[in-house]
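Troubleshooting: if your tokenizer reports a length mismatch, compare your output against this known-good record of 452 residues.
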Amino acid sequence: MPRVTVVMPTFEQSHFIARALDSLLAQSIDDWELVIIDDGSQDATARMVLPYLQERRIRGVHLLHHTGLGQVINDGLDRACAPLVAYLPSDDVWYRDPLRELIDCLEQHPAAALAFSGVRHHYKRAAAGKIAGYRLQLVQCMHRATSLRWTTREQLESDDLCRLFWSRLREQGMFVGTGSISCEWVDHPAQRHKMMREPEGGVNSFRQRYRVNQPLRFHTTTGNAIPSHVLDGDLPKKEWFDAPLRERLSNADGEIHTVVPGRPIGLHPHTVASLAAQGVHLHFYGDFTQGQWREWIDKARALAPRHLHLHANVEQARWVDEFSRYDAGWLLAFSSANGGELRRANWDDLNYPARMATLAAAGLPMIQRRNEGAIVATQALTRCLDMCVFYDEIGELAATLRAPERMQALRDNVWRARASFTFDYHVPALETFFRSVIERASRSRAPSRSAA
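Known-good structure output:
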């Protein structure tokens, strides 16, 4: 078994590939194998590679169509036999010792997942590790064999190698450097990242170069910023908020009444029972949703027959009249697991549920589980506006719901902020944004005037 598998991705670089192959053959160690994956080249690549295939350590694979960098590398990894993997793109070049130095570095650091060398770049510049403004390049790197695979074109095309692979590999161990300049990241006009990056490249240049016909999720680390303004088009009209408040049910029976206008996510039947034990009622709205949650309803009713109440859908014009009778309304009751790391966040963490506007219309404080240290959009917003009852335990929640001064303060805060939950409130900012985009586009299209 060889000590290291070298993966060489190539696409129409017939003028470079012989130099790359010769640099591998000139290495100070010879215990390696090479897998060349030709990603659908239509130039002279096959003819240039053919003589090298006489070497027993070199294997070549030619793909009929261009599949993208991630898939090509994955094909090479699937064919690798060695416990270590290095990369030699066909337009780059190694000096005499990178394989030996990278192997030695990984042996000296058994906890490391990847070793990297220094690199020469952009004619005669050099970097001991990452090149300023770039990620670690393939030609610099060697890592231990892993079941991880590179992100493919179906998922994302990017010039950011961290997004494609390095960031996930880093979770398996640290990255360590040799400190030696032992390779060159060759600068030329047809480099992949140049085909992707504006202003010289871009999505159309990339498609043309690599003959891509399928839709792409396309990301580059540089380019022209696109003006953006995000607004939920489903926010309700302000007219639906214009109605008098009703007297609360709790004023009549002395018990707490809460409402969930939609799916009772996170409110398990035993949670409803715990609420009932504290004298807290749950009013569940939505005919269709109730049909989907029939088993949940049966279990919750068996545990809390007097405290679970079912109601039909309520049209928008009656939101205030119907829901203002309650003491508070439920958002989604979930425990976040993202630990404050945005990449781990899921839909529940980042979603503003539509019911927020419904509850705001009725002037209701909102209820949600406390998720300290996590990134949760509803928590951040309602905490900023101070309009939410946060809880860890049901007993704590019930105590807050029965604290008249605190609940009145929350109701006052909701009332002050409720207009911001209408679409109309955001129209001036949206109009300003549209006008700024139009003005910017007009300036860019205006003919230049030559100096007199």
